[in-house]
Amino acid sequence: MTERTQRSNITLAFITLVGVVVIVSVIGFFTFRKGTEIIQGQAEATEYRVSSKVPGRILKFFVSEGDQVREGDTLAILEAPDVVAKLSQAQALEQAAQALSEKAEKGTRAEKLQEAYEMWQKAKAGKEIAEKSYQRVNRLYEAGVVSAQKRDEAKAQYDAMTATERAAEAQYTMAQNGTQREDKLMAQAKVRQAEGAVAEVSSYISETYLTASADGEVTEIFPKVGELVGTGAPIMNVAQLDDMWVTFNVREDYLKDFHVGGEISAFIPALEKDATFKVTYMKDLGTYAAWKATKTTGGFDLKTFEIKAKPVQPVENLRPGMSAIVKGLE
Known about the structure:
Residues 83-110 form a coiled coil. By secondary structure, the chain is an alpha+beta fold.
């Protein structure tokens, strides 16, 4: 091979290598340069769960998934026989406490009062007889007819009947005065206690009727008719479609296009139209969220922020779960 041919081959190889480097550079420039970015978010709505304070069995549903409900509408009824039984017990205790209170207020029955009076009169008669007997025996003692022992026995009998008469009089006076003030207050307190127990159990009975706490749409119903549900177990979800927003996860190198109070335009593919949203919330998702390094080594990490934005005007047919896309970010 001649020297001239060798030089030609070397020149051709060099030109080919330069061409390959240029082509790779052009491809890399167009492939890896930073282009227009899009951010996809999702529509969400306020939801509340309907649940019961008492365990029971689902007796009946008045709504189905997708139904619109108004505040105060009855959604379902639970069957709770044990709560009904407790209500009967509480009502019986209330009636007993009320009867005791009425008895305390009325005081002693007429029959008891008459009995106490008769016992007092009986004791008075006994005292009078004992007094007369003592006086006769005492005169005989002074005349020297009877011994001192006989007089002492008559005196003891007279003193005993006097004490009996005072005790009978006190019983009659107490019967006249009726129940003590403290006993009346205690009876009234027991009535209030029983009324509180009835009110408490009645509130549990009312909890077996599940009602809507706000307007909305039934999105999910969890149990079936006849199933048992526990205390606080969710029965259904209700979405308030008049309180909706869109949530985006935005890397911080694109946050210059977002600020609280600012407006953004987003395309909703399901509705095939654009809508304007106002940013109302911005928060760092934390170190556990997605991040991106600015350099392979060194530099700093780009964190992700959660952005919430509400429609400036109501968007017809916007539903939770629909996508919203923000384009044109660089």
